[in-house]
Every structure is written in structure tokens, then in C-alpha cells.
Amino acid sequence: MYGVSLLQSLLGGRIMYKCPLCGFRSDTIRVLKKHMGQYHFDDECPVCRRRSRNITGHFYIYMTTHKDPEHTLLFYLYSRRRLDDNEKEEVKRLLETVKLELRIL
């Protein structure tokens, strides 16, 4: 999986954000968040395969109590609220460093 900086160098300086689940690319985090909500919204966590009626809440619990970077990235990308500048920087950092290990049953 390419990190943000490698994609940026491959695309002549333009930053592209890659979906951690399918490879979709976007030049804005806003469009990536929209893609996540349209194409990947489910009641099952793609990381640990737990089912939840409130999947964003599941990601939030793992983000705050377990400090898990995979769940933190998914919380920010699935969240319907607008991200502030600090959260956007965190998403950029996580997209570059976190390699999602998806559990396939």
C-alpha cells in the first residue's frame, strides 16, 4: 500500500489519499470520507470483524480506550462530522503509516 508521500512524488507533487479498504484515490480527505460512507459503510468492523449497530461508535471506543491506530483511522474516515485541522493532520499521518490488516473469514 502506498503512503501519502510516495503517491505525492508519483503524481508530480499532488497529494492523493488512498482508501485503506479498496484502493480508491482522492485528492481531498472530504471526498475520501464521502467514498467511505457510500461504498464501505457496514455494521461489521473491517479490522476485527465485530458487528455493531453503531460502527462509528465501535471505532471511537477502540480509538479512545485501546489507542488502536487502525480503528482511529477508520473512526475519522467514517465519521460524518467535519474534521478540524488537527484531525486532518492525524488522518494524513495515519494514512501514511497504518497498514490495515483486514480480517477475512
What do these coordinates show?
With 105 residues, this protein is mostly helical. The chain has one domain (4-97). Helices cover 50% and strands 4% of the residues. It has five helices and two strands. A hairpin with a 6-residue loop joins strand 1 (17-18) and strand 2. The longest helix is centred in the C-terminal third of the chain and has 13 residues, at 85-97. The protein is globular, with a radius of gyration of 13 Å. The two termini are 21 Å apart. The mean pLDDT is 82.
Rg estimate, integer Å:
13 Å
Oligomer: single chain
> Could you give the distance between the termini?
21 Å
Strand order of the largest sheet: 1-2
Instruction: Specify the biggest β-sheet.
Output: 2 strands, antiparallel
What structural class results from the helix and strand content? mainly alpha
Share in helix: 40-55%
Mean pLDDT level:
82
- Tell me the number of strands: 2
Spatial shape = globular
Percent in strands: under 5%
Helix count equals 5
- In N-to-C order, the SSE pattern is HEEHHHH
Residue runs with pLDDT of under 50 for 5 or more positions: none
Number of domains: 1
